[in-house]
Amino acid sequence: MALLAEAGERARVLAGGTDLLVQMKEGRRKVALVVDVKFIPELNELCYDPADGLWLGAAVPCYRIYSNAAVAHAYPGLIDAASLIGGVQIQGRATLGGNLCNASPAADSIPALIVHSAVAVIAGPAGRREMPVEAFCTGPGRTVLGPDELLVALHLPPPRPGFGAAYLRFTPRNEMDIAVVGAGASLQLDERGETIVAGRIALGAVAPTPLYVQEAERALVGRPVREADAAFAEAGEIARAAARPIDDMRGTAAQRRHLSAVLTRRALRNALARSLASLKGVEQ
């Protein structure tokens, strides 16, 4: 933090470097000081406890997340995203902390983190503070971090029986591509698996920041599982209305709005299947 404070806006933190190094080589990022945090123990901590949830250091690479059997079982929606970031070689270095701090509107991990109710743990000269991930990004490439602050870790609450989450994206290619639209969804069912008691939806690549579609919850909460298709269709239309996309080389605004509804419905169906499977696991 002292190094960051000394160099100010010209300093950058290096975790995986899969975004930063490319930006520097292309001249899009002028940096006077690079602070390598890959070997700080706390930033490399990956700890899952069924009672406390998942503590994920900001420098933990993707491959360590999806290769951890306990984490993969508890957070399959997070694994959906971690296994899509770049190709296998990129996943050996890329971190979810770095993906969040890069603050791309099309980031794969951020919608997944949002629907898991993840919290960012930030350290600075004044101490530590916590921030819901949905409030972390303030614009393309911009975050709430001050020039002398550092993202230390992400905390995901423990999934309860009846919880399920999923992330989907649409791209022209399967690997090494940026999402045209990404959609994350999570559901919490009651103990009988008959009613939806909570739900979260987040979209990527349809607004200046990853978008938490909080208003979609009203289409989900309190709805019987037997009416899930109708509830998911309503939530999809709310997601479509919330999207604020642009036309660019990867897709048109109209296509992105359409995909927002389609991917939201599909992600919700996947989340529901996982919610019901988690309850069956409890029964067994």
Structure description:
The protein has 284 residues and is of the alpha+beta class. The chain has 2 domains: 38-156, Uridine Diphospho-n-acetylenolpyruvylglucosamine Reductase, domain 3, CATH 3.30.465.10; 163-283, Enolase-like, domain 1 (2-Layer Sandwich). It has helices at 2-7, 20-25, 62-66, 69-74, 76-82, 88-91, 96-102, 109-115, 228-242, 253-283, and strands at 11-14, 33-36, 46-49, 53-57, 119-124, 127-132, 137-139, 142-143, 150-156, 163-170, 181-189, 196-204, 211-212. Strands 3-4-9-5-6 form a 5-stranded antiparallel β-sheet, with no helix packed on it. Strands 10-11-12-13 form a 4-stranded antiparallel β-sheet. The longest helix is centred in the last third of the chain and has 31 residues, at 253-283. The chain is globular and about 60 Å long. The N and C termini lie far apart (49 Å).
Give me some keywords for this one.
284 residues; Uridine Diphospho-n-acetylenolpyruvylglucosamine Reductase, domain 3; Enolase-like, domain 1
SS-based structural class?
A: alpha+beta
Number of helices: 10
**Largest beta sheet: what is the strand line-up?**
3-4-9-5-6
- Whole-number radius of gyration? 19 Å
Q: What characteristic shape results from the CA principal axes?
A: globular
Strand content: 15-25%
* Average pLDDT number: 93
Assign the CATH class of the largest domain.
Answer: Alpha Beta
Largest sheet: 5 strands, antiparallel
CATH topology of the largest domain: Enolase-like, domain 1
H/E element sequence: HEHEEEHHHHHHEEEEEEEEEHH
Distance between the termini: 49 Å
The number of strands is 13
Number of domains: 2
Q: What would CATH call the homologous superfamily of the largest domain?
A: CO dehydrogenase flavoprotein, C-terminal domain
Q: Which residues sit in consecutive blocks of at least 5 with pLDDT less than 50?
A: none
Helicity range of the residues?
25-40%
Provide the CATH architecture of the largest domain: 2-Layer Sandwich
